[in-house]
Amino acid sequence: MACVGFNLRKTTRLLTQIYDQALKPAQLRGTQFSLLMAVAGQENTTIGKLAQSLGMDRSTLSRNARILEKKGLVTIEEGEDRRQQSIKLTEKGVYILRRALPLWEEVQERLAGKMGEERIKAFLKDLQSLSQCLTKGDF
Q1: Residue closest to 73 by CA, chosen among 86, 90, 97
Q2: Which residue ranges make up each domain of the chain?
Q3: CATH, domain range 15-135
């Protein structure tokens, strides 16, 4: 089928299964790993800012962050304005992320081995272009 949406969803489901399996030793799912990486990459951030940078709905991100908080991987603190919740990695979160990173890298290397480094780079560039095109709001 030549539908971009269908093919992206199908590929995403397959990749999610692969990442989830690979990250099991770190007791993380692929979505949780991605969220931890995003928090690690944005010091002193809020749930709202993080949601915007990830292209996620704030309530969905908040729900996923609460799961990580229950696992002791992040702290979520209320700001003066209740809507301004800050999110930070805990020491345990840093430890788990360090443990998970080589597992994630192994999947990345396997993908590059299957598709080739240049094709992966081009594909990522195309995905970023598509994301920017759709994010601008003029689509």
Answers
A1: 90
A2: 15-135
A3: 1.10.10.10
Short-list 84, 64, 83, 65, CA closest to 75? 65
Q: What single DSSP character describes residue 74?
A: E
What mean pLDDT comes out for the span 36-64? 91
Note whether 89 and 1 are within 8 A (CB): no
pTM: 0.87
Please give the span between the terminal C-alpha atoms of the chain, in angstroms, as a whole number: 22
The predicted structure's pLDDT at residue 22: 98
Torsion angle, alpha carbons of 53, 61, 101, 105, to 10: -70
3-class DSSP state of 81: coil
